[in-house]
Amino acid sequence: MTIKLTSRPAAGSRPIRAVTPAGLDSLSGSESKWAKTMRFSGEAGSFLVVPGEGGEPVSALLGIGASQKDAWRKAAVPFSFGALSGKLPAGQWHVEADDGAGDPTLRALAMRLGGYRFSRYKAAAGKDEADVEVFAGEEADLEEANRLADAVFLARDLINTPTNDLGPAELEAAARKLADEFGAEFSVITGDELLARNFPMIHAVGRASADAPRLIDFSCGRADAPKVTLVGKGVCFDTGGLDIKPSSSMLLMKKDMGGAANVLGLARLIMASRLDVRLRVLIPAVENSISASAFRPGDVLQSRKGKTVEIGNTDAEGRLVLADALTLADEETPEILIDMATLTGAARVALGPDMPPFYSSDAEFSASLAAASVAVADPVWQLPLYQPYAENLSSKIADINNVTSDGFAGSITAALFLEGFVERAKSWAHFDVYGWRPKASPIGPVGGEAQAIRAIYAVLQQRFGTVS
Ligand code: BES
Ligand code: MN
Ligand code: ZN
After folding, report:
1. N or C: which end of the chain has fewer CB within 10 A?
2. 249 C-alpha vs ligand 3 centroid, how far in Å?
């Protein structure tokens, strides 16, 4: 069930009261009594409907937990509102909460995020839709909350869609649809045309699939605005290639286009809010498949940049397709170049599923991002582009190997590999995302998840503002 956010409190709408465990005492007589009877705790995520004399719901209590010292937990307090979705009885409601319940726009966002379901393949989809409308408060920016939710839902839907319905061709169609919605200029280079136009590594990784590899490219915004280019790893399925993954590691690999999905979500946000930038989106879309034409361990590939790359492992494919796309992006010297990719298992070992590492040598961008990350409760953490590890990518016969021999610092060395293809961009940042929520939470079920895009958007918004 999804909650509809309304811009005005409806006549006769009932209050949803945000309550801390300590705040239970200040409830009115009947609410306080009912809360005690029902042992409502006020813990984060606890919820109670308070009935009137005829049993009809007259108000609702939402627990937001005790005040938090930890910055991440504190930032996530408004996400308690995600628990309302699926629980609020039908009809009109309005939020009554103070600053202790966190940013009002984030509360509104949480109410929408919590109602997300991926129902494309479920026969009963949509039948249990209750009609619930909530006024989130005067201070909540409804349009912003809806833009954010739409961007997150786009990323989730794309990641959740299995590869039989979302190969490179369908990823192209999804990007085209988004571009068309905002009047962006769209082009794509497909199959052998990639060789003719000098994207040899995108071709090599994707050529074994029945669905041709391609490079998706769209641009939007006034031509002389600062250039912001987003590059997303669009590996629609990652078998590992000839260095095939064991089945347990392959099971979730429909999500290996999570970087592309995030970039499309972020692009939607940037275009919908009309940030004053010249946006360019590049997505190398491929399936890392196995056939007689697959690239092999030991092959040496030419890259767009001219560097030769020895293939130590065909499962390190993301960095190869990204390298050619980053090279193209870099050619026009963008102000900001951002890439997002489900690049390494090592990033998960280091920081777990919820906190994507990012890499950048732009100290100012990194500091703004770290601050925005906490402010909008979208966790990211900077890891170092530690140059001494770059030599572990050396090859005896080519300019570079796509993997290290010792296997240490896998996320860092992947980032260093990419850095070697970026020269001119004034500022470059790489995000090694997971793209998946492994445990259900108030703001979303298990499945595809947008990561880092709200934090990046906040930074871009501060820096560039909107078209007046
Ligand atoms: N798509 C995977 C990385 C991945 C695996 C992300 C699991 C999230 C969850 C990537 O293409 C890959 O296979 N990376 C290898 C690199 C290795 C061969 C150097 C990895 O991380 O094991
Ligand atoms: Mn791989
Ligand atoms: Zn991959």
Report:
1. C
2. 11
Report how far ligand 1's centroid is from the alpha carbon of 316 (Å).
6
74, 87, 176, 245: which one is catalytic? 245
Q: Which atom of ligand 1 is nearest to the CA of 404?
A: 19
3-state secondary structure of 188: strand
Tell me which residue has its CA closest to atom 5 in ligand 1: 345
Q: Which of 147, 319, 348, 454 is catalytic?
A: 319
Structure tokens at 349: 């070992």
Contacts of residue 15, defined as CB under 8 A and 6 or more positions apart, other chains included, come to: 59, 60, 93, 94, 95, 96
**Does residue 128 register a pLDDT over 60?**
no
245 is catalytic: yes
Phi, psi of 393, rounded to the nearest 5 degrees: -95, 15
Atom of ligand 1 nearest to the CA of 402: 19
Could you report the per-residue pLDDT of 21-61, keeping only the tens digit for each? 999 988 988 999 999 999 999 999 899 999 999 999 999 99
pLDDT digits (tens, 9 = 90+) for 424-442: 999 999 999 999 999 999 9
Domains of the chain: 3-140 (3.40.220.10), 146-464 (3.40.630.10)
Q: Which residues of 133-159 are buried (b: 16+ CB within 10 A; e: fewer)?
A: bbbbbeebebebbbbbbebbbbbbbbb
pLDDT tens-place string over residues 350-399: 999 999 999 999 999 999 999 999 999 999 999 999 999 999 999 999 99
